[in-house]
Inverse folding.
């Protein structure tokens, strides 16, 4: 349960704040947790809302780092503009000429490597958006080149 503080913590907001200095005194306290929201009535009544927001920001940064280490760069950090679909098209044509067309999974992997991402959703969105603009055709899970 939130306990609105009536006296603000003495802090000079013109100097950088070390969020580790301000830890909740009580484990039931919401200070800097996922419950933080400036629109929340209880948060807006609390006199430490600015420091709590900074603490919350640090909490979000650590969660983001965990996700990035597990899944690679996030969608907005992936280099989707750096994907050269001409190279992917040549690779698909090479597969076809060797007798076994490229599979959809191999197409995804080729794009994933060029984009330097593990984000499947970003790769699928790129394929949906850009594949019609190339000479590649998807048919029954295989990639053919016109």
């Amino acid at each position: 349960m939130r306990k609105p503080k009536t006296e603000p913590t003495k802090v000079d907001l013109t100097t950088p704040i070390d969020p580790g200095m301000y830890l909740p005194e009580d484990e039931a306290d919401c200070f800097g947790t996922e419950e933080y929201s400036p629109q929340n009535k209880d948060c807006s009544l609390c006199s430490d809302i600015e420091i709590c927001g900074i603490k919350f920001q640090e909490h979000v940064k650590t969660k983001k780092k965990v996700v990035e280490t597990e899944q690679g760069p996030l969608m907005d950090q992936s280099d989707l503009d750096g994907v050269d679909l001409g190279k992917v098209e040549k690779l698909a044509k090479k597969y076809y000429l060797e007798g076994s067309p490229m599979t959809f999974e191999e197409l995804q992997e080729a794009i994933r490597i060029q984009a330097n991402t593990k984000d499947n959703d970003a790769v699928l969105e790129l394929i949906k958006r850009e594949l019609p603009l190339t000479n590649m055709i998807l048919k029954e899970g295989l990639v053919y080149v016109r």
